[in-house]
Records
---
Amino acid sequence: MNAPRSVPGPLSRAEASLDRLLDLMAMLSGAVLFLMMFLVVANTLTRKLFNWPITGAFEITETMLTLAIFLALAYTQKVGSHISVDVLNRHFSGALKRILEFSAPVLGAVCFGWATYASGLYALDSYAMAEQEWGSITYPIWPVKMLICFGLGALTLRYLLEIGIIAHGERAGAEDGQ
């Protein structure tokens, strides 16, 4: 599915605001990936050269990977980089293509809306019980679960925005019948 373009209309301010947030989240995701790469290299070097691994590197890396993934989900949807199957779509008529174009974000909004709600409850439970990550280091895990919920919520908002854009006929290519 192609990413919607910004056009003047009732949703353009909402799209611009959400896009700024998604851009920031993507930059944070990239920064987390860079730091994770640095940590893995530093851990490997200290372990191989000095037989002194960085304490907690595994636990920190798994947390960083989770953050990098969930912070980038909505941005990936914004730019249209999620995997899509176009093999059958190119053989469908214009009306069927429009139905599929509308139903995909509706299904995404429903599924990821539910996932946002469920992960939010899970994060609140984690906070209430002061859940900890146990390993070579111990740290609270609920902030990571809250950020998972935040990332899923941003993806849900992106899907809802796409539904509005399609419903208002503001999707790129809507004018030429695509």
---
Amino acid sequence: MRSMTGYGNGTASNDMGMIEVSIKTVNSRFLEITVHDSKLPVSVSQEIYTMIKESLERGKVIAKITFTPSTALKQKQITVDTDLLNSYMDAFSKLKDIKGLKTKKIRIQDLLDLPVSWLHVDEPKIEESELILLTKEATKVALDQVMDMREQEGQNLAQDILRRIDWIEKQRIFLVENAEQSSYAYEKRFRDRLLDLIAETGLLLDKGRILTEIAAHAEKTDFTEEVIRLGSHLEQFKQILLQEKVVGKKLNFLLQEINREVNTTASKSDLIEVLNCVIMIKTELEKIREQVQNLE
């Protein structure tokens, strides 16, 4: 199990230069990948994008790649087209042999001003295939660090969530023990009020029928089923948390079911002890929900 928060940085180098890749991830409902590539070839960015997509399931991912060329690569290469230059010099020599044509001494600037240049300044050539290899190496290092951090934080979150789930289970047992008392208290209170009303007004009513209706209504206030289902949800929550790697969406769904059972329990009882217990459970559930939002 992993959280969605992580950071990693990787580098790789060869004679051409050095590639540095940094990857930062935060929580998000889906997988969102952004790559800042410093105007490198599209294939380089695509390589990072593909590797991230194959490694992560959820989270907002921001990757940055920079390329620092080597000193040798920064130096421009100057080449002389000696064949062309020799041809020019031969042509100038022939001009001298033409009678009546005045010529002057040839200067370097005269040669540089010729229409077809014999002097070439070559920009350093970056091999795209080499860039991709460096990118793969640096990205793997960065991703490994991200995964390690996400797994470590995920384990820390899991331990805290499990501790809170165990605490909620103890409160659930308290609710189970008070379910019958809550229903009985409601029935007794309602029955006493009604019987007092009958005695005060002198109404002739079928007490047996009245008591039957009261008992039936009191049964609707019994939240035993809700707290039993709550126990099942809590156990399933723990199993998913301990056994699966990608858990965020499943746990979010289960939290909704758990909240539903807790809310129904609160609506069926007016015992102050039960209501206080429900309030504390809901407080813990909100803390768990916030933590689950950061799980992959």
---
Amino acid sequence: MCILCGEMISTLHWSELNFKEEKHELSVGEEQKERLRIRLKKVKILNEILEFYGLKLKEWQNSKYILSNKKGRDIIVNDLGDLWIKASELEKKSFDVLDENLLHFLRAKHG
């Protein structure tokens, strides 16, 4: 159970699964370290996209994420399937991840 939010952490969203393994459950030790490493890598990639919208994602306790805007508001994101829903809640607008302006922004940033 998460100490801060009181939710049980027993299931994983499909985006959190390691498809190289047959078992899909939370574990401790080295597997948790690898899971955190992968989550941090995903956060880095997502922040490249979220920067366009003035948002920032942080990994939180190897179970959830925190999405922040430039106004100082934060919202807990349960999993990556929840990200764009929470971004819309936070910013009070919808997002199009295939927006031409976003794609131009990413191309300009990465060549």
---
Amino acid sequence: MTGTTAQPTPSVLAARAAPAVADHRVPITDLRRAAWTCALGSAMEYYDFALYSLASALVLGPLFFPHHGATVGLIASFGTYFVGFAVRPFGGLLFGALGDRYGRKFVLLFTVTLMGVASSCIGLIPTYATIGMWAPVLLVLLRIMQGLGAGAEQAGASVMMTEFAPRGQRGFYAAIPLLGIQTGSFVAACVYYFAIAAHPDIVQGWGWRVPFLLSIVILVIAVYMRMHLKESPAFTEMESHHALEKLTLRQFFRNSGRTIFFGMGLRMAENGGASIYQALSVSYLVTAVGVDGRTGTAVLMSATIVGGLGIMLGGTLGDRFGRVRVYRAAAIIQGLSAFPVWYILGQGNFIACVIAMSIGWGIGNNGMYGAQAALLPEMFGMGHRYGGVAATREISAVFAGGIAPLVGSLIISKVAQHHAGLPHPGHPAWVWLGAYVFVLSAITVAATFFIPDPINRDLQDHHDIL
């Protein structure tokens, strides 16, 4: 890690000096509609994300991998979880390129439909007991559909809102769709909480299907709202000047490879941390610590509320103090709290677990996410912004968010084997889980020193900041 922050490029310095009135002006009704429409799509994506995380921890192993034992079944279910992440870069590159060529609205409408249909169908597929090996095969295919759609959804929402928002308030408005993430996660946790309450042995009945089938409701609302969404002003202006870029994949990575690389560094702590906290915290509490499923889910529900505050703090403070500086501070909070958070989770006290998760994940991790909302779009040039943000988000998601729960479940399994005589043999895994989050945070802190802050740059500029 170097001790000096990267120096701003001339275009970034010019953007900082430019007055706010140089920006386009969007009617406030259009701005609000864009914000809440993008937020609903984010809710759809992260309802699916959190739902599958909880299902992997609580029900998918016995239902789709019943002959592998509890531990191997858990790893196998998180393996299908990883499949969804593995295909996200392909979805990001494909739909990102389409978004830069045909518009943000077109792609956002398609991706939310793809994700919603896939999630609803998971609630309809037969289990292993009914159709044997075809059950996990169908599960994997639907996860691939989810992953392809999710690969461009959040990138498109961030780009759309950054291009809609007035200069000086991009961080605030770009963070609003991310509240959809917390909403989706919270609703998923609530639905599973009440499903478990209604059917304590949720694996044996049909109750596990209900949360997935409820995706249909969110899907219908999201599609309706996105059909009435206007195209981003920045894209409309670029299209009117016939300035659309048509880059080959090789040209794209040659031009933006450096920006994508350091953007991936930013994502390691945020995406990896979010994934391990959301996907693994409940699993750890239930399987390793011995907490019941309802209590473990309630911990995640409670911390999710604080996460909404963390997102808006990250976006708003980024407008005032600089996005990179705020991002770095949030990464440090997550890193320093990593060991205490996992130690406290290992004790199983509900109130203490909620407070710990609220600090490490709610403020630290979501603070990064809020600052990232406008930071990544401002890092890329106009003609390939959607593709650049999607590539950065989704390639890093494979190495950070997709692998994290798999690594975490393996850690719990190995520690459990080593402490086989204890009542809850996976309990001592908190040291390794904390170390994993700490390392991811350290990578991101290092990356922030190589990135000039692009705050308020001209969004019509076709050059990246690196």
